[in-house]
Amino acid sequence: MPLEQIVVLAIVQGITEFLPISSSGHLILIPAFTGWPDQGLATDVMVHVGSLFAILAYFWRDVISLAGGVGDILRRRWTVHARLALYLAAATVPAVLFGLLLKWLGILDKIRGIEVVAWNALIFGVLLYVADEVGPRLKKMEDITFKGAMIIGVAQAIALIPGTSRSGITMTAARFLGFERAEAARFSFLLGIPAITGAGILTIIEMNAEGHSLPPGAFTAAILTFFSALAAIAFLMALVKRLSFTPFVMYRMLLAGFLLVLAYS
User: Fold this and answer.
1) Which of 59, 20, 64 is nearest to 175 (CA)?
2) What pLDDT score was predicted for residue 200?
3) Is residue 180 pLDDT above 80, yes or no?
4) What pTM, to 2 d.p., does this model score?
5) Alpha-carbon distance 52 to 56, whole Å?
6) 42 confidence band (pLDDT: 50, 70, 90)
7) Binning pLDDT at 50, 70 and 90, where does residue 206 land?
8) Could you give the CA distance from residue 235 to residue 193 in angstroms, rounded to a whole number?
9) What DSSP designation does 179 have?
10) Residue 128 in contact with residue 171, Cβ under 8 Å?
11) Distance CA 41, CA 49 (A)
């Protein structure tokens, strides 16, 4: 990949991974509008790894607490942090199973199209608006139940379809369950840790088994993504404490309208 493509990928991934506007959808659109060759799923995973380290850096206190929760589970102590660690792990399972199903069916590459991105940006943008506007939202992350965690986990699985937005749909589910905006975002980001880690490890293992190496520039893209993602997380966490998700919904509507006209004209 040329350097300019690496830089663009890193910036777009870093910003869109944590804003509820779909990172995978935007990554698909880059080659469609620039004429660059599709960077492929391997590079997509590597820039997601850059996003992962941004989560670990920003939420380091939560990460340490969750690590302590894992230790509590091993010691058979049912603490708040142990419960959260267990629920995050359980909520990751639906995405793993759905991802394996999509791969087994051989349709992962077939759903990387502009039409798919457009319709998902529209549909799940509307759902985000409804979830954000209807009813009071008072719950904290510590109030989550196993059922609630699994509902958010199923929502995360749907985000494997481009244009949906992992952060967007998980925050939508959390808002429907009654969580504050900042707490919905916090749980969404922490839920991304096992999901992104698993996807990265699986892709690297498969590539090594097939004798392939990562595309040139993938590690550079991951490093650059880390910095842009860290800025995006800080921006979103500050924003949701003061405003609603409506600006992001409006962006999704505009993006969807533009892409639908482009796809069907």
Assistant:
1) 20
2) 74
3) yes
4) 0.88
5) 6
6) low
7) confident
8) 19
9) B
10) yes
11) 12
Sign for the CA dihedral angle at 135, 136, 137, 143 comes to negative
Length of the chain: 265
Q: Give the model's pLDDT for residue 85.
A: 95
**137, amino acid identity:** R
Provide mean pLDDT across the span 84-102.
92
Would you give the DSSP letter of residue 138? -
- More confident position, 218 or 68: 68
Task: Tell me how crowded residue 15 is: count the other CB atoms within 10 A of its CB.
Answer: 19
Of 155, 142, 196, the residue nearest 17 (C-alpha): 196
| Site of tokens 């991951």 | 222
SS3 call for 144: coil
CA angle 13, 19, 25 (to 5 degrees): 50
Instruction: Tell me the CA distances in angstroms from 59 to 83, 127, 177, 255, one per residue in order.
Output: 18, 27, 23, 30
- Which amino acid belongs to residue 76? R
**DSSP H or E segment with residue 120:** helix 114-133
Query: What is the rounded distance in angstroms from the CA atom of residue 201 to the CA atom of residue 185?
Result: 25
d(CA 173, CA 231): 24
The answer to whether residues 41 and 108 touch, using CB atoms and an 8 Å cutoff, is yes
Q: How far apart are CA 252 and CA 73, in angstroms?
A: 41
CA distances to 27, 78, 82, 149, 245 from 190, in Å: 22, 20, 14, 12, 19
Q: Which residue has the tokens 């340490």?
A: 64
Mean pLDDT throughout 46-62? 90
Which amino acid, 38?
D
The pLDDT of 223-245, averaged and rounded, is: 91
Burial 148-162, CB ≥16 within 10 A → b, else e: bbebbbbbbbbbbbb
